[in-house]
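User: Can you recover a sequence for this backbone? Please restate the input before giving your answer.

Assistant: Of course. Working from this structure:
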């Protein structure tokens, strides 16, 4: 892994969506409320690494993933690919960026055209980006099927003839067809059975090493993130609250929310997934983000300063950064008893 050169830099990115526009607000001439999906997010992704992005539903991780591939434009801040702001690319550069940074979506059912065979789906990606002369496309399709461990007779079949895990392999093959530098995988396996999840994640891990890919792995399941990531960004209410090498995060988290997420992780069984809550108390509304620490309403260590001053993501040693007033003087949240933080 080369950690010297960031391939992607996220610099102070804020993204808001229009929220509900109540009759009262309309009558009083006020604009719709804004949903603060991302709030001043900064991080770097290094060439050849896998960066896990974790957090509860609604924390902004999927919005960040969509900003990274230009499906959404930030309202403030910039995302740079190899130093260039991706919002200001010229037409030719944009085509190049679209090829070099590929997204694999959560739902393989809706991201594959049901009327196209696998060979047409992969062949289309190869033709659109002029990856191979027409005569070489069948051989390249065969190569890609082998790479994702699908049988050669898959080429003539339609997406509905495959299982969920196989469909994700088709999605991976389509993404790899254009020889990307980076892949953004948004909840890649969350719709799959646990045994199939491991197969698809292991495949992605092997491909990442073999092809020297940069992978941004967005997930709510910490077990998977630990397995695949070199570093992990923990998000809460549109902000990165901890950014850490994976092993350091799992052994000595520096933010109380990371600790709460870790303690909840053993219960992330698929049958209970919707019932697992990482921390007690209500998640503040993204329509009304508190002025101080976003975790203040759920943190058992909250003190006065937390409610008025937003903690910034700052280095905590050992490659870790955290946004917490409590740990800014070197305290390790792993050493802090977190009883009572869980619901
Ligand atoms: Fe808890 Fe305060 Fe740290 Fe926020 S800044 S996580 S409220 S101790």
């Amino acid at each position: 892994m080369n950690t010297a050169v960031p391939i992607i830099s996220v610099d102070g990115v804020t993204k808001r969506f229009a929220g509900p526009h109540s009759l009262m607000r309309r009558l009083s001439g006020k604009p719709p409320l804004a949903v603060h999906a991302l709030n001043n997010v900064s991080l770097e992704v290094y060439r050849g690494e896998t960066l896990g992005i974790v957090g509860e539903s609604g924390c902004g991780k999927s919005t960040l993933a969509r900003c990274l591939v230009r499906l959404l434009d930030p309202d403030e801040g910039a995302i740079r690919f190899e130093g260039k702001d991706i919002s200001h690319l010229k037409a030719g550069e944009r085509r190049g960026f679209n090829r070099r940074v590929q997204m694999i979506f959560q739902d393989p059912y809706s991201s594959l055209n049901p009327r196209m065979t696998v060979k047409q789906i992969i062949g289309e990606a190869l033709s659109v980006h002029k990856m191979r002369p027409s005569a070489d496309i069948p051989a390249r399709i065969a190569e890609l099927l082998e790479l994702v461990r699908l049988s050669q007779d898959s080429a003539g079949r339609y997406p509905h003839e495959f299982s969920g895990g196989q469909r994700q392999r088709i999605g991976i093959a389509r993404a790899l067809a254009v020889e990307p530098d980076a892949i953004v995988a948004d909840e890649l396996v969350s719709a799959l059975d646990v045994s199939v999840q491991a197969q698809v994640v292991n495949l992605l891990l092997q491909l990442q090493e073999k092809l020297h890919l940069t992978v941004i792995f967005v997930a709510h399941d910490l077990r998977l993130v630990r397995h695949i990531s070199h570093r992990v960004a923990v998000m809460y209410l549109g902000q990165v609250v901890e950014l850490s090498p994976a092993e350091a995060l799992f052994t000595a988290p520096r933010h109380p929310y990371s600790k709460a997420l870790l303690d909840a992780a053993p219960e992330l069984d698929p049958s209970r997934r919707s019932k697992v809550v990482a921390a007690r108390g209500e998640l503040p509304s993204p329509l009304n983000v508190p002025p101080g620490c976003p975790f203040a309403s759920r943190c058992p260590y909250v003190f006065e300063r937390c409610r008025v001053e937003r903690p910034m993501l700052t280095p905590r040693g050992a490659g870790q950064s955290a946004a917490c007033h409590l740990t800014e003087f070197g305290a390790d949240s792993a050493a802090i008893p977190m009883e009572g933080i869980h619901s």
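That completes the design. DSSP finds twelve helices and twelve strands in the chain.
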